[in-house]
Design brief:
534 residues, mainly beta, eleven-stranded mixed β-sheet, six-stranded parallel β-sheet, 1 helix, 1% helix, 46% strand
Length: 534
């Protein structure tokens, strides 16, 4: 009887699960054999997956299940004698199961949960999935030979008429909430996708190719780029489409620029470099007929979360109305003030013009969602562009790590400016359509961590912080209340009996910029910006 949570078993030994429904212990197995009937469920997760050298699934009616957020790695031979139902990789709203194997021609069912009713970018995790799995009236492929004007021009979308889906290609599918059971031979090989560019017209609108994750696990885009998957002439950024509710009212693009050459990866919204099972995405090439190669070594069980590594010298600026959008600027050595194919992401515009858009305009006048700059210093200017229908909007600093500078938003139309480090947001009225000249960001050196006439009497430290903030009150008045709210206005902490408070734990807060407000018994109010970076 084993009592340890994790057990390593001799690589030549054999462990047999022979019964009905069972949980497979999270051990490192030699030879693992699944017999009997019922469901045998993997219990290892993405951080500590269940691992075995060889795995055999026997008996029709026997199911090896890899539940949501669980993971299995088979390092040598995987044998499934129970047909497509013998191995099942699960998927639901709570997450996806993950399987990494190296054996070809293995049958399995790989499930792909889709929220509904909305458009999804999808890809097949099995070899040549049949088109009959889908409602063909709403199943589209992207014709890279056509021009994409970047303003909701859907002409390149064509109805797909092939019998089977192509491996490592992406498709668009509109359907209600469902789970698609991909049944067949799981993809475990290296895959080559030819990228095309139609060399005519505006080259910024050419060369967009839709590809997809062909595997039964996450595809690590950072590993793919560092491993040389992206050919010379193609750009490193990837582009997702997020249609939250199917009405188009929540539809917007998400962008991710991978880590490369010692840089860090960064994305807008919840986009990151961990591409889920069955996920399609866009990539752009500036050279026709070049090959992108997805190697099996780029697979990972990594959890699909927003980046957690420390990020330096970056900011996210958000525009908000009834919906919101964001753009990112960051400092990267060897980048330029124009568009950099390896460091930046171009700006794409969704078809729904009710969605406000914000972007950075480089010195070459290209619009970017993520823009890398070689340096930031006092009076550096970052030109912003916006697109929105007529109405009232706000711009705020959503996230930030330029500790040496205050960030100012300048409005050329009203001849006004605001310090985004200390103010929640800047509110304005927009007359509609594109405006590429009204707003810009500029920078000034910080002289202290606080910004009002109480700064000599109240000290907040450490700031930036990774866990908590402390207070030193040198004034002659007491604290009455303390409030902390996020950049979007959500109150995250409120204490109306704050007389004895000298420390606040922020460990449950997400990374980002927060605004502190302390009301004093003499009627004064102290305000400050807090940066949390765990």
């Amino acid at each position: 009887i084993f009592s340890a949570a994790s057990v390593s078993i001799n690589s030549a030994s054999t462990v047999v699960y022979d019964g009905t429904d069972q949980n497979i212990k999270n051990w490192a197995y030699g030879n693992l054999v699944i017999n009997g009937n019922g469901t045998k469920s993997v219990t290892g997760d993405a951080t500590t997956p269940t691992v075995c050298n060889n795995l055999t699934v026997n008996n029709t009616g026997n199911i090896l299940s890899i539940p949501e957020n669980k993971a299995l790695t088979v390092q040598s031979t995987l044998s499934n004698n129970a047909g497509v139902d013998g191995i099942s990789v699960e998927s639901s709203l709570s997450g996806d199961g993950s399987l990494i194997s190296y054996t070809s021609n293995v049958d399995a069912t790989v499930n792909r949960y889709l929220t509904g009713t909305c458009w999804h970018y999808i890809s097949s995790p099995i070899d040549g999935a049949p088109l009959s799995l889908f409602n063909t009236n709403n199943f589209m492929w992207w014709d890279a030979s056509m021009d994409w004007a970047g303003t909701g021009d859907y002409n390149p979308w064509q109805g797909y008429t092939g019998t089977n889906l192509l491996n490592a290609h992406g498709y668009a599918y509109y359907y209600y909430e469902t789970t698609i059971p991909f049944q067949g031979k799981i993809n475990v090989d290296d895959y080559t996708v030819t990228l095309y560019m139609y060399n005519s017209g505006d080259l910024d609108f050419q060369g967009w190719n839709m590809i997809g994750n062909p595997y039964t696990s996450v595809l690590d885009w950072d590993a793919a780029v560092s491993g040389g998957a992206v050919p010379s002439g193609a750009e490193d950024a990837i582009y997702y489409f997020d249609d939250d509710d199917g009405s188009g009212s929540q539809a917007n693009y998400r962008y991710y620029v991978p880590s490369s050459g010692g840089t860090y990866g960064i994305g807008t919204g919840d986009a990151n470099g961990k591409i889920p099972v069955g996920q399609g995405f866009f990539i752009k090439t500036n050279t026709d007929n070049v090959n992108l190669i997805l190697n099996k070594s780029y697979r990972t069980h990594a959890v699909q979360e927003f980046y957690k590594s420390p990020l330096n010298d970056f900011l996210k600026v958000q525009i908000s109305g009834s919906k919101s959008d964001e753009t990112i600027a960051r400092i990267i050595e060897n980048s330029t003030f124009g568009f950099d194919p390896n460091f930046d992401a171009r700006k794409l515009f969704p078809a729904n013009e009710n969605f406000p858009q914000i972007y950075i305009i480089g010195t070459d006048l290209k619009k970017t969602a993520i823009n890398s700059l070689p340096e930031i210093k006092p009076n550096t200017i970052i030109q912003l562009g916006i697109f929105a229908q007529e109405g009232d909007y706000s711009i705020n600093l959503k996230d930030y790590n330029f500790d040496r500078y205050d960030v100012y938003l300048v409005d050329n139309e009203t001849v006004s400016y605001v310090n985004l480090n200390t103010e929640e947001c800047y509110q304005f009225h927009h007359s509609g359509e594109y405006d590429n000249e009204r707003f810009y960001l500029t920078f000034q050196s910080q002289t202290s961590g606080v910004t009002d006439n109480l700064s000599n009497n109240i000290t907040v430290y450490p700031n930036p912080t990774s866990q908590f903030i402390k207070f030193a009150n040198h004034s002659n008045t007491e604290f009455e209340s303390i409030k902390i709210h996020s950049a979007n206005g959500k109150v995250c902490y409120l204490n109306t009996q704050a007389k004895s408070v000298n420390k606040i734990d922020l460990s449950q807060f997400s990374n980002g910029v927060y605004f502190l407000e302390i009301k004093l018994s003499d009627g004064n109010t102290y305000r400050n910006r807090i940066i949390l970076n765990k």
